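Dear Dr. H.,

I hope your travels went smoothly. While you were away I took the liberty of generating a structure for the chain from your last submission, since the lab meeting agenda had it listed for discussion. I wanted you to have the full record in hand beforehand rather than looking at slides cold. The sequence, exactly as received, is reproduced here:
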Amino acid sequence: MRRLSIATKTCVVLSLLLLAVSFSLYLANNYYFSQSKSALGRVISLDVTPRSDGFFYAPEVEFFTPSGQPVHFISDIVGNPPAYVVGDAVNVYYQENNPELAIIDDFYAIWGNTLLACVSAAIFLLLSFLGHLSLKMKHAQFELKTRHDEFCKRRIQTV
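The corresponding predicted structure, in token form, is as follows:
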């Protein structure tokens, strides 16, 4: 078996690590939702965060637990333009023992990190495959050149 380059090995290791992270995030999400309750909430304000490339907005959401306790939280969904506007109704998931750690029922908020880790793993896996393929092609070219040189030497010797 031919040896893999350090870059190819690094890409394989990073890919495996990112797949492990992705699987862990998937399991954590499944556990969170198996323990969660849902409620209807409302966006009550937008939390503004200045950054070097402009202002970004995160919705502040209020919802009520079944006992009537109001809960406020600022979502991790940040954007410019804002993904939500004041007054929007949103479905939220929360755990009874810590309702302040609620999340909005939004694909990116729920699965964004898992998807990012999985796509990154796929990219590193593709890079490792391309690196391995490149080494195979270089080796094949070297073999072909060596055979050609030997053939030319034999032809010259027979003349």
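Two observations you may find useful: The first strand starts at residue 37 and ends at 51. Strands lie at 37-51, 54-64, 70-74, 89-95, 98-104.

With kind regards,
E. W.
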